[in-house]
Amino acid sequence: MNWTRYLRTWEFALVVLLVVEILILGMINPTFLNAENLLYATLDFTHILFAALPLTLVIITAGIDISSVSVMGLASITLGLAWVAGINIFVALAIALLVGIIAGLFNGFFVAKTDVNPLVITLGTLFMFAGIAQGMPALLDLLGFKAYGSAGLAAYQYEGITGLPDNFIGLSEATVWIIPYPFIAVLIFAVILSLLLHKTRFGRYLYLIGVNPKAAVYSGVPVQKTLVWAYVLSGFGAALAGSYLTAYFTSARADLGGDALLPIITAVVLGGADILGGSGTIWGTLLAGLVLGFLRQGLLAIGVTNDLIQVVMGAVLVTAMAVKQLMNVYGEYRLNRKALANKGRG
Amino acid sequence: MKKILRSREALITGLLILLILFTGLFNSNIFKFNSITEIFNASLTLVLISLGEMFVIFTRGIDVSVGATTGLAAVILGTTLNLGWPIGWAISAAIVTGIIAGMINAVGITFLRVPPIIMTLGTLGIYRGLMRIITGGSWIENLPQSIKEPNLWRLSGIPFYVWLTLVVIAITAWVTLKYKPARYFYAVGDNEEGAYLLGIPVRLTQFAAYTLAGFFAALAAVVFTSQIGFVSMNAADGFELKAIAANVLGGVSLTGGVGTPLGAAIGALFMTAVHSMLIFLGVPGIWDNAFAGVILLTVVYIDYHVRSALELQRRQARIRGDASLKGGES
What we know:
Number of strands of chain A: 4
Largest sheet of chain B: 2 strands, antiparallel
Radius of gyration of chain A: 22 Å
CATH topology of chain B: ABC transporter involved in vitamin B12 uptake, BtuC
Number of helices of chain B: 14
Structural class of chain B: mainly alpha
Strand content of chain B: under 5%
Oligomer: heterodimer
Low-confidence stretches of chain B: none
Number of domains of chain B: 1
CATH architecture of chain B: Orthogonal Bundle
Strand content of chain A: under 5%
Shape of chain B: globular
Largest interface: A-B, 47 and 42 residues
């Protein structure tokens, strides 16, 4: 029977975890057992999903992109400033997404062309993009764009840009039947990434690079090109997350998403991706993101403070990894025992 | 010449001097004795955190919880002081907190086999959360004078904490270069399996590295609290990333087994100096992060090219059979 194979996958375990979690939350507070409420609750962590999904591809190549939290703010402030400059809000959105792609290109080229650890590179760009995002309003002032308001654009640095048009803000609240637009966008994004990862040659290259980069080079895999694309997708996802947050908070700010690093990486890792590369799936990341997001929502609903939730989230990450590692060790031990027993018999 | 080219400490010190000279062209106030000591004084927290992080990076690990550990230790220090504990006891409590925080990371990484970045990312959340839970989210103010006092002490015009940090750097440098078990950090980071086969206690070494990171983070907390005079809830926020950047700038390679305490300290000094320079140049503080990022990327990029060029040279020499260059192998 082929389908039993699926019962033993990590993704299935996550589905079970998700169902159990929702049931428990429902027992505590019955309003949770309402599909509409559940879907509405996803709005609170949609940005995590947008950023975590493409990050999975990067982590599969044994890389990492921690600059995505800065790209969120960069995309947000770009969107806001473009709108202030009189550009149509949807063109501004396109510009913000383009900025994410450019940021990803920068990371990707740096990672592909040098042997410097991706953590160092994206740490550098984390500072750089955050700095550019913070400085951009003041820079535009310096360049002579002084027409807007008496305090200049620099005022937006601290206040954020508000008053964005309703047809843009509305995107974060609109629904098809009971499914919010942003969640539909997440699902479409996940389907595209999943097809890329699991059904194309590009996807296989990502795994091969993660398992053995040298073997990848010698078997003619376009390693550099593949890596650049992975980081570009990550930058794009982060820009999407930043744009979404802008609509959700109805304000464009340079520091949006700054505290999202922990949940983003937790989602990818809990989703089954190995931080050392070579394994991971898009659906795993999506499910783990949902498990974590609902856990947070549920804890908030029963009156747990934000601070304690942070502690719980940290503990979940560490415990999940420890259990996984110990299960690996146990699995190896069992295999060894089995091998020894067979040898004894033979 | 080659040796100097290879030494990241030299590269970064050169850059630092250039930066100071460049700033001096526009604002000669930077050459004043007070300005220089002030830059040193401002860098101490980061220097101490970076020294702890260095041991972890030596072993090819990473610790992104050090900033949170500093914050947590500062909260413990402030809370116990305001409870009326004598200063010695309060400082001890803070240091013990740091060591325990480091040991928790160490247990997860060495015994439970959780990858370092995951483990410390998790504890980053935990320690930051605990900070707010302990204080209820409010700042710790009205600290007794006894903790603020040492910040005013001066010895031949130089603040007490600068001396203290110099002594800590000197001890760390002497120990890591001369004391045999301290070389284990390098061995484990350079080649974990090789170190294991040589009989080096690999796990114990890793354990010690994370514990030391916690210890240094707590030391930084004491200096930090004394200098600032209060503990805010985002105390030392983001210092973990700055400490990693400082180490990389100072030549402590994330691939493990490479670097010196002096390099780590100069890297941290550099990170802080950039901030001070921008103030002297009259550039708004919002550009700090952008400059820090550009400098970090530039330095690793230059370093990559220097390394590639040297590698090429070495290979060519090997092909030519040039014996005189064989010494450059290491």
